């Protein structure tokens, strides 16, 4: 029960609708080989990663599906001969599943993104041989964050109202500033982070543990459809794969690896999001945690991170930007400058928003939009910019102008 | 108007009820000189501190009250001749207040504690020439914490219910563990910290900015009486002194210096307690801050400390004890670092096998190997391990997950 040879013709027909139909034959064969690889391995298969890195996915696949041989490549890849034999014994039983998985991908309308694509998030290369062989994607591949800063926002499924509010606010603020928000589509914090980014029309990616054709959790089917429409739903396992516990853990490493920084918004003492935080720290990526009441069990995990691994204390969108190494004010200034250079009245727009605000009483976004003569979405985006700049403040009832504050130092 | 000479007879009569009547003459004269010094200087008078350190309080006082001379001692103390002249010009006008201040001390029933006493908190020596020359005390001098660990618990006057609760809880816990709780008797956090320590019969010291005969704030008169009854009310300024702004700042340095560690329980962005935190950091003493909701302005100062000066995140009494370097109890919970080290490959492999099993229907070893992505031999070995552990069960048709399996850790 061997796999059919990955000829250009076969690659073209198998990847119809999945890869770019205008691709060169060689590129299609490489993509096809990677797609097959994703069907044979569990996420983070080091032997597969080492082989592919050594001789490319096509040759590596030939070696993988053969019964013997390939000792020279395995040696060059730094593998013991026994490791290749052992790997074959776990890859071969899955050869029969490949055709089914590819068909499931076509049915779901999934796209294949590989390291050869411009949309590939290069950051994952830091995983070395544990990096994914490819990604299966629904939606806008640009939301994977290859071309912009990306932040992972994760946390407890059993989030409090406080945690959900913060996740939504921080994600909306980061997305407004042009940062892609990466999360895991789980109930609680993950979902709120995606919602916050979607609310401002920002880029967001939901990384799933199972195939992208299997909305998980089921109660987030509608949210996942919205993410696929406005951002990206992605997975390293092919369509038809179920979300097992192992794959959740592997998915967590990928959330961290795809992001420039990870923020744990709310987490209990043993929250799975601490696992994502651990991966971020292991990758040397900046790690932040949002504090909460010490009387709240929902924040105990965040406080652990602050205490035990010296995570940065995150209290605002500006803190998130600082964690990413981005100066929120400079970013904003550039935006305004760009806007004025292109004659888009960017500065004028901000002035109009400021004019529509009060110093004392909070006004709703809707009210401000009306007073300033903007659509609600446009007003929300502008308010987000001004919030980053510290010129306006969010209050329970809406927005107010910030009192002028000197850039106070602590002492 | 010069001061009368500090003879043993005069010292004994002036310090009647204030110092130990059984003291040796020499000790009484030293104590008397220090009491006089406290009437002449503002807290933290470096010139006074340097002179006293060089030639002792009695000789230093002679030099201080003289119109000229003492250049040799000043030189030995590292002072410029001009500094001594300038200091005299600020000390001399107060010579006429000494008798009155001493009388006020006797009326208030205050006790004098000096560096020569066993009850003197040696920690304040770290202030060098800025250390107090003596302390005026109401209550149990042992609550000054000379013989036990001491923690400063400070924070905003405008505390939230959350902050008050935490201050009381943390202070009660620390006091129960034998730690003296030092604070400033202000409304809000300070008061709650004292109350928490008193509630468990623990040691607590209220350091006042004015004289101990002037309860401040007035609304804490009753609380200060309770502190004097169960702990200590102390000040470095003599009785009859009013609490000026300068003395508040000086008092803050003393709170930090009298404590092994400082914890800011709740503080706004510009809270005066950040000043105490600064002194603790400058003295190289451990500094902790209790986080709160990032939406609460009352916690903004604590979050600043966590972000800007890397204060330790304090969430519990155990954290306070750790800040003090005291191993109060062996923590049951593993640290994040420890837990992360147990994420061995083996645990992950077992998780993958468990993922491939069903709770209900038995699956063959071959089927399980394919689902989990292992060779058959490897799967069989892992299943054997899990069987030994009681996590899986062998059935006629293969293997099932056991009903009551231990929850796996995520790390």
Describe the model.
- Two copies of one chain form a homodimer.
- Chain A is α/β, with parallel strands linked by helices.
- Chain A folds into three domains: 96 residues, no CATH class; 184 residues, Rossmann fold; 74 residues, Winged helix-like DNA-binding domain superfamily/Winged helix DNA-binding domain (Arc Repressor Mutant, subunit A, Orthogonal Bundle).
- Chain A is built from 17 helices and eleven strands.
- In chain A, the strands form two sheets. In chain A, strands 1-2-6-5-4-3-7-8-9 form a nine-stranded mixed sheet, with helices on both faces. Chain A has a two-stranded antiparallel ribbon with strand order 10-11.
- In chain A, strand 10 and strand 11 form a beta hairpin.
- In chain A, helix 1 crosses helix 2 and helix 10 packs across helix 11.
- The longest helix of chain A is centred in the N-terminal third of the chain and has 20 residues.
- The radius of gyration of chain A is 23 Å and the shape is elongated.
- Chain A starts with 7 loop residues before the first helix and ends in a 10-residue tail after the last strand.
- The C terminus of chain A is likely disordered.
- Chains A and B meet through helix 5, helix 7, helix 10, helix 11 and helix 12 of A and helix 7, helix 11, helix 12, strand 9 and helix 14 of B.
